[in-house]
Amino acid sequence: MCRWLVYTGSPIRPEELLYKVDHSLIDQSMHAKLGVTTLNGDGFGMGWYDGPRRPGVFRGIGPAWGDRNLRELAEHLESGLFFAHIRASTGTAVQETNCHPFRYRTWLWMHNGEIHDFHRIKRDLALAVEPELFPHLEGSTDSEMMFYLALSYGLRDDPPAAVARMVGHVERVAAEHGIANPVQMTIATSNGERVWIFRYSSAGASRSLFFSRRIEALRELYPENPMFHRVSERTRLIVSEPLGDLPGAWREVPESSYGVVEAGGDSLRDFHPTPV
């Protein structure tokens, strides 16, 4: 499947997390430890915010570890909120429009997982996408379909409720086709002001997802680590798997839950699909 990370906090260069830590996202593209596949070489993408305008996006179809343009961009760009994703295809084509993150206006979205037997229910799912949103669908992945279904169900107003309705819709359509346990997902989405994360699977056995402890605690645990002293207390990381072996630095996102990261504080809550 895939690996991804979200960074939010003091502006940094993405190379700090993509290249410079022990188990960076680039290292995970070749040596993932917790994913379904060790290699994640079917494309990559990065999305970043640098103000109130819509986020920038850079995507490529080759392996992330060999892309010189990604390295150049990550070395010179600075952002206080960015997404990065390395892809392992679950069957759809390796093409730029299938690489994450996906963007609609100020929103970014990325996903690890799958809709089981997506090819069998793709048409029925697409019919639930709002007509004004449908022309913006560019690729052929289940991940992008989930994004536009969530947008259709109100992502811009209430992300947790919209994602719950999206999952409920997918599970209902799948059941009508005799498909059991169709949804496997860890998802990150943002409007540039807040970040929402989701961990859920229909079978109750979701792919891995972790978040960093508060910076104050990390400074106490690792007083010699310069990065923990450079960034502010509001800095957070959410990752498919930890970026290195720092005991006590990471906590696992609970099964069937969602989180919100915002300026006023963070929260974790239970996630349950809503039948539609």
Task: Please provide a written account of the structure.
- This is Class II glutamine amidotransferase.
- It comes from Actinocatenispora sera.
- It holds the Pfam family GATase_4.
- There is one protein chain.
- The chain is an alpha+beta fold and about 280 residues long.
- The protein has one domain: Aminohydrolase, N-terminal nucleophile (Ntn) domain (Glutamine Phosphoribosylpyrophosphate, subunit 1, domain 1, 4-Layer Sandwich), CATH 3.60.20.10.
- It contains 8 helices and 13 strands.
- It has helices at about 15-20, 25-30, 70-75, 120-125, 140-150, 160-175, 215-220, 225-230; strands spanning about 5-10, 45-50, 55-60, 80-85, 100-105, 105-115, 185-190, 195-200, 210, 235-240, 250, 255-260, 265-270.
- Strand 2 and strand 3 form a beta hairpin.
- The chain is globular.
Shape: globular
Succession of helices and strands: EHHEEHEEEHHHEEEHHEEEE
CATH superfamily: Aminohydrolase, N-terminal nucleophile (Ntn) domain
Helix content: 25-40%
Helix/strand-derived class? alpha+beta
Total of DSSP H or I helical runs spanning 4+ residues: 8
Determine the N-to-C terminus distance. 28 Å
Radius of gyration: 18 Å
How much beta, percentage-wise? 25-35%
CATH class: Alpha Beta
Strand order of the largest sheet: 3-2-4-1-10-9-11
Q: What would you say the CATH architecture is? A: 4-Layer Sandwich
Domain Glutamine amidotransferase type-2: 2-264
InterPro entries: EgtC-like (IPR026869), Gamma-glu_amide_hydrolase (IPR052373), GATase_2_dom (IPR017932), Ntn_hydrolases_N (IPR029055)
Pfam family, one: GATase_4
Keywords: Glutamine amidotransferase
